[in-house]
Model the fold of this input.
Amino acid sequence: MTRFAESTITFPYKRSLGPVVGAFMTALTDKRILGIRNGKDILVPPMEWDPTTGAELAPDFVEVGPVGTVESWTWVPTPSVQHPLQHAFAFALIRLDGATTPLLHAVDGGSSERMVEGLRVAPRWRGTRVGRIDDIICFVMGEVPETDGGDTGAAQEPVQRMDYHASITYRNPVPAATDRAVVASRNRRLLGLRCPRCERVYAGGKGYCPVDAVELGPECEVDLPTVGTITNFAIVTPVSYPGQTETEPFVRAFVLLDGTDVVIGYSPVIELPADEVRVGQRVAAVWASPAEEHDQEGGMGGAWGSLLGWMPNGEPDIDDPDLVNRIF
Amino acid sequence: MSATPCAVVGVGQTHHKSRRLDVSFGGLVREAVFRALEDAHMTLADVEAVILGKAPDLFEGVMKPELYLSDALGAVGKPMFRVHTAGSVGGTTAIVAASHVHAGKHRTVLAVAFEKQSEGNAQFALGSGRGASLGAGGAFAPFIRAYIRRSGAPEHIGWKVAVKDRLNALKNPYAHLRIEDISIEKVKASPMMWEPIRFLESCPSSDGACAVVLTDEAGGKAAAADGRPPAWILGASSRSEPSSFPGRDPVRPAAAVQCAADVYAQAGITDPRHQVDMAELYVPFSWYEPIWLEAFGFAEEREGWRLVDDGTTELGGSLPINASGGVLSSNPIGASGLLRFAEAANQVRGAAGEHQVEGAQVAVGMAYGANNQYFSTWVVGSSLSPFAG
Ligand SMILES: [Zn+2]
Done:
């Protein structure tokens, strides 16, 4: 059975809206819906260019709706947290009065039996609007727009940017070689895989040789030494960004394992300040204590399992001008 | 090349800035596209296919931007392709576009590349969305340390490249960084970011786009007859290698050396140092200039820094590198590679303006990406056979 690891990536992106969508979003804060004239068409939401020819459109805005007619719909019986409503609803193509193209939005229809083509719907506005399409919570049946809660009014300034909080959760299959490397790390063993074709040895549960494109199974496993020499390093000055975990300059070192051709790249160092790290320095592996083993934070993560990083072992430096070239 | 000849007849780019809050994605790419079409004396209707390149989707959080932008690019009903080869993507975008013309599949193809870095965060994106991102500087600092130690280059080489490219940028109206008082002292005094890389030896984060119109032999000749010299593509090549394996040399990657050999063979170049008049190399951190001078055959191994030191690569030197100001002056990542290719084309068209290299007839555009892994290069000439006779 393949094991899967779940990860989530989130980021608060900022969208620049441009002169046309910006005007549309600004109008939403004032509970008005704008279209744009394109020949005999009124496009809603407005576009900067003719969607067929790419020709630039003049900013000839036309107020439409806010009431409209459902042209088509699909029922969403079990919404996810990312859906606009948390109970069953319809996604519908709504032709707002005065528009020639439909707007996609949610309709709070109660039950799918009540949804029909030709249904008249009106917006339910959010009380506090920021200039996003969900300033309209959804459309409701009938001819009368609603406002949810206290109305805090239109935006004071034109809306130029929009928050776009992206979040994606995905599941990746974990290679068997990774799991074996993690298990070995619990016993303070550093596992390598020797390619039967090129003899290169790979650490870190990489279950294949990228040079020969062959899979490396358990029969290729070798034990690697846990003492080595720093060949090169990066001292990173962290910049802040959402999700950044570092505030002080931190080191990532490259360690050539004794008597092998194996370099462990981008490794954390322990009890070794950034201004003391140097090429040729002798280091030994540092392992998590059994109590720490389920906590990946601060370690090397992934296939490295209990390997936390590398610490000077007190031996004299190795003076070899070619060491610095062993980054890989 | 045995295929149907392909010519660059139009080049456009935006003014690159930290934040273009006034435009949408579509608005940004269209600025570059319409400048390129105007330059080519064409309209969107003349374009038969569109090739779009940009860096990973994590930069702006728009998945499948080629679909999102198809109507903005007038691509409705036309073939539309996305290219994705990390930082080299802009160059590869031009090569994919040229391939459609070379193959005789389409007469005129539009290559477009962009990045709108202000919508997200490059360090976040390069760190795969996790904390403790190395960023490009952290990833490349060890490579640069290895280059400096093996070549014995003095530390001022990095400062010199940083000053040269920023001085060149002052002659390029589209460049992002305009540091009027740039000097060795200023670079030297700037903060150490990723030892040995200082702040002013690093590229900026930019919003920007670039577009190139490529057409067939008849189109190129028609432009030339109309007094608008085209740039003829004499060779184009892409190569890559795995990110890590024992023995890989990121300072002189096998993929870079193979890419150079392939593109020079296509162009009939045997002595790049003397047969090439200028090059636009992808140099996001100053030390990459000597690194690529060597890997791309302009200098012997460990000797590239001497061409920086003696002024050869300055705008007035015998092999100007990054006359436009390069990636060190403008870095809309996805577009940065296409900008190298486009600037090289403009040089042989005699259309580079104030940063024109006098009499340039053969130029190289080059881009790389990821961990010194992906390479794209083209050689362009003012004629199809610049070395004849
Ligand atoms: Zn192998």
Summary: Chain B has two domains: 6-121+205-225, 134-204+232-381. Chain B touches chain A through 60 residues (CB under 8 Å). Chain B is about 35% helix and 20% strand.
